[in-house]
Amino acid sequence: MQARVRSGYNPWVPTKTNELNFYMKKRHLHMTQPLRNTIFVALTLILMGCSTVRTSTNEIKAVSVDPAPNAGFIEQPGQQTNRADLPFQKVWIKSGFDKSAYKELFIAPVDTQYMLKMDWMHKMSSASWMGDVKKDIAELARYFHHQVVEDFKNDPKHRFQVISSPEQHTQPALILELALIEVDPSQPVLHALSWAGPPGTGTAAGAINQRRAAFEGRLRDLETGEVVATFADRDMADAGPLDLTRLTWYGPAKGIMDRWAKQFVQIANRKPGEAVTDPTPFTLRPF
């Protein structure tokens, strides 16, 4: 189990060398309750063995990651339930819906309007930094869209033919509509900006150790426009005591999006009665 170092540079955060000293000095001052819980679970899993940490299970995620509040992208979120056979925390599927009747798939651009309402963003005092964050959010949306498109195109089973516009469809088609609703800011960036507040206080302090991202989604019949399924999920990424890879405010969000994209394809290919499980919400990387 080796640490993976991701490349990246942001002029607003310390260099890797300085970040190590900065991070270790600050770590004991910002031991919030979520971080204590994460460390406790992590140490428990070490004793259980690395193979257990990687075990695919929806149950571990169910007790480790709370669902995100409804953002409004889904019109009737109360219809959704948690299903043990699917990796997403909230799911609704229209009664009688038969996915096998559809041969084509259009993946709409990812909606980001709900992310711009996140509390921590509006606590920033720098207008220039806010502008850069908005650019990052747009880039994250493009990345998420690209990953979903590529994973469906590269699906060995070729479950759907991906079309680039609704006008291209020649067979029964579905539209996949996604909205990013949450990405937690990374800890080093918030400290570098010096607005996280006193240890253990404020919205930012409650978010910095969560390493979470969330989305809401809809599946729509392209011909009729009817919504035939909705789903939402919040997921958590890797946790490690010596984590020098979070050099941007959006930290591990892209890794979570990669996971979601693969899960969309797995769900599209699943057979009746087959379960699609979720990996553990984090993989332990202590060194």
Write the layout of secondary structure elements.
Layout: H1 16-27, H2 33-48, H3 50-53, H4 58-64, E1 90-93, E2 104-107, H5 127-153, E3 161-163, E4 173-183, H6 187-193, H7 202-207, E5 212-221, E6 227-236, H8 253-269
Parallel strand pairs: 2-3, 2-4
Antiparallel strand pairs: 1-6, 4-5, 5-6
Helix pairs in contact: 5-8
- Low-confidence segments, given as residue ranges, are 1-32, 41-56, 195-208, 240-245, 282-287
Find the structural class using helix and strand composition: alpha/beta
- Helicity, in percent? 25-40%
Number of strands: 6
Q: Over all CA atoms, what is the radius of gyration?
A: 20 Å
Strand content range = 5-15%
* Average pLDDT for all residues: 75
The helix tally amounts to 8
Gap between N and C termini, in Å?
A: 8 Å
**Main beta-sheet strand count, sense and barrel state:** 6 strands, mixed
Count of individual domains:
1
Give the spatial strand order of the biggest sheet.
1-6-5-4-2-3
Order of helices and strands: HHHHEEHEEHHEEH
Shape: globular
Architecture overview:
The protein has 8 helices and 6 strands, in the order ααααββαββααββα. It is 33% helix and 15% strand. It has 287 residues and is of the alpha/beta class. 34% of the residues are buried. It is globular. Helix 5 packs parallel to helix 8. Residues 1-32, 41-56, 195-208, 240-245 and 282-287 have low confidence and may be disordered.
